[in-house]
Structure formats: C-alpha cells, structure tokens
TrEMBL record:
A UniProt-annotated Pfam family: RibD_C
Protein origin, superkingdom: Bacteria
Gene3D superfamilies recorded: Dihydrofolate Reductase, subunit A
Record's protein name: Dihydrofolate reductase family protein
Lineage start: Bacteria, Bacillati, Actinomycetota, Actinomycetes, Micrococcales
Organism field: Herbiconiux daphne
Domain Bacterial bifunctional deaminase-reductase C-terminal, chain residue ranges per copy: 5-180
InterPro entries: DHFR-like_dom_sf (IPR024072), RibDG_C (IPR002734)
Length: 209
C-alpha cells in the first residue's frame, strides 16, 4: 500500500502558522510574534503531538525548518522531550531545497527537484511520512495535491499578518473533516482533514427549504 503524507501545523485562529516555536524562528516580513505558541501549549496537546509520531517512519521538511530541527533535536536525548527527540533522530529525514545544503543531521537526504516524482518515491519506501512546520513547502504540497492528511492544532489567538498555509491568493481546495479533538485546557483543538479535490459546487441559500 502506498505510504501516506501527513502535514502537521500549529495555527492561530486566523490561520497564521509562522514561527510558533521561538522569536528567531522566522522573522520574514518583520513578523513580531515568534514563539506565540509557547504560552498556549499544554500537556494534553503535547501528548497529541507525541502520539501522532508513533507510526512516523520518515520526516519531510523545508530547508528553514530542517536547519532549526537539525540544530536542536540531536541534542535533546534526555529530559521531557527525549521521546520526541528519539522519534525524530532515528528516522530518515528528507529536505526540500533549491540549493545543495550540507545536511549534518544523521540520515538526512536531499529531496529530488521533481516534487511529484520525489513524493511518489517516498510513498513507495515509507508508510507514514510527516511534514512538520515548513509552511512554504507544505503550501507546495497542497497546491499540487500531494498530501493525504492535514493536522491543524488551532490555538485561541489572532495574530493578523503572517505566513499561512492557505494564503488569499492560494488555490481552492476541498477538505473533509476526519477527526476533531476536545479542547485542551488552554483552548487548543486538533482538527484533522483529508483532501477531496476541488471544492464542491456552489449553491443558493435562498432556494433551500
């Protein structure tokens, strides 16, 4: 059976996914709210993240996210994040980049330039491939219809400007809700969606009985 591509993103209520982890993660276009997730994440949504990684056997990342992860996770073998570190450190990592970067994290590989062909190859070799963060790259996967599940952790904060998976000039995408978690203690909700192709045909509410 062909492997599955899952996209995992932390999102504000208004759809901003830029730099949830820290102030210097991504300051593109003067983004001033880096680290916005930190006050809002709790044990319950943290457990959801860890649970979602249990079947993961490959990691697919954009270059910026790869550099952040490669500088952090190889050094987190102990403490509260040890299980996540082990999960990420022990599987193959594939990196989408227009350049030829030095990939220093163990078992890291440069993704081929033909995105559709590269993703098809990964599906043949792995069962559960996760894209974490990597908004620009994730947007390319969505545009090309190269994903099977979108996992969005929605947090109760509105950020205004910032990078979004679904920008105002992005392509139309039909989705179906696969699951919805109860709200965490701090108000986060995990929503999982599957793609359905183009959005359904439009209708006219005035004709409904």
């Amino acid at each position: 059976m062909s492997g599955r591509i899952q996209i995992d993103l932390f999102s504000s209520l208004d759809g901003v996914q830029q730099a949830p982890g820290g102030p210097d993660e991504d300051t593109t276009d003067g983004f001033a709210f880096g680290g916005w997730q930190a006050p809002l994440i709790g044990d319950d949504d943290g457990a959801q993240v860890a649970d979602g990684m249990k079947g993961m056997d490959a990691l697919l990342l954009g270059r910026r996210t790869y550099d952040i992860f490669a500088a952090y996770w190889p050094h987190q073998g102990n403490g509260s994040e040890a299980d996540i570190a082990h999960a990420l450190n022990s599987i193959p990592k594939y990196v989408a980049s227009r350049g030829n970067p030095a990939l220093t994290w163990a078992d890291s590989h440069l993704l081929g330039s033909d995105l559709a062909a590269a993703v098809a190859d990964l599906r043949d070799r792995h069962d559960d491939i996760h894209v974490i963060g990597s908004i620009d790259f994730a947007r390319s996967l969505v545009t090309e219809g190269l994903f099977d599940q979108l996992n969005l952790w929605i947090y109760p904060v509105v950020l205004g400007a910032g990078k979004r998976l679904f920008p105002h000039d992005g392509p139309p995408v039909g989705l179906t809700l696969l699951s919805a978690s109860p709200a965490s203690k701090k108000g986060a909700v995990l929503l999982s969606y599957g793609p359905t192709g183009a959005p359904p045909a439009t209708g006219d509410m005035t004709t409904q009985q």
